[in-house]
Design brief:
The complex is a heterodimer. By secondary structure, chain A is mainly beta. Chain A contains no helices and eleven strands. The chains are: A mainly beta, B mainly beta.
């Protein structure tokens, strides 16, 4: 039981390049989330998927797109990376939204030069 | 949206002493308040949570208190140990935003042996 997995662990991009961060969970959770973590800013929600087939914007969605590929997988795409998107990205999942523990993946450290 | 403020940003205590971290929130509709611990280089993990219909909850050396009137909640760690050293994040959920988690900016706790 791997829990929540993310790929890649590290990535360096040049401004304007695109990439997709992958996330998968094996806990049969309905809800999945993407956060970014910046020094002094805590964790901020980018997008979430309350259930398979739905996605919604979080606090900081600009510059990102998401796809809930199936119940297990939730990807985050940067179409044209900017230095302001340099951050650590965490995927998380929970049984449902609301009063349910969110389980986090190991994170992806992204640097945009 | 919700605004969660967390203080202090850094905290150092002697082993065996108590540590208290405080958070305030702005939206009176918030109804769930989890606390996550993040060790250096690791993923955040839930350590304790409280719902808005409860004033206090304990789990061994950790406790959380909630004051709905004042819109603040606190994490209390007693008999601190070096392994308690980590960054702690509070969060609040607002039901009418799809149950999004709004995180505080984190408190870096150092327990000095």
């Amino acid at each position: 039981n791997a829990g929540v997995t993310q790929t890649p662990k590290f990535q360096v991009l040049k401004t304007g390049q695109s990439m997709t961060l992958q996330c998968a969970q094996d806990m049969n959770h309905n809800s999945m989330y993407w956060y970014r973590q910046d020094p002094g800013m805590g964790l901020r929600l980018i997008y979430y998927s309350a259930s398979e087939g739905t996605t919604d914007k979080g606090e900081v969605p600009n510059g990102y797109n998401v796809s809930r590929l199936n119940k297990r997988e939730f990807s985050l795409r940067l179409e044209s990376a900017a230095p302001s998107q340099t951050s650590v990205y965490f995927c998380a999942s929970s049984a449902l939204t609301g009063f349910h523990e969110q389980y986090f993946g190991p994170g992806t450290r992204l640097t945009v030069t | 949206g919700e605004n969660v403020e967390q203080h202090p940003s850094t905290l150092s205590v002697q082993e065996g002493d108590s540590a208290v971290i405080k958070c305030t929130y702005s939206d009176s509709a918030s109804n769930y308040f989890p606390w996550y611990k993040q060790e250096l280089g690791k993923r955040p993990q839930l350590i304790i949570d409280i719902r808005s219909n409860v004033g206090e909850k304990k789990d061994q050396r950790i406790a959380v208190t909630l004051n709905k009137t004042a819109k603040h909640f606190s994490l209390h760690i007693t008999e601190t140990q070096p392994e308690d050293s980590a960054v702690y994040f509070c969060a609040a959920i607002v039901p009418n935003t799809g149950n999004q988690f709004y995180f505080g900016t984190g408190t870096s706790l150092t327990v000095i042996p």
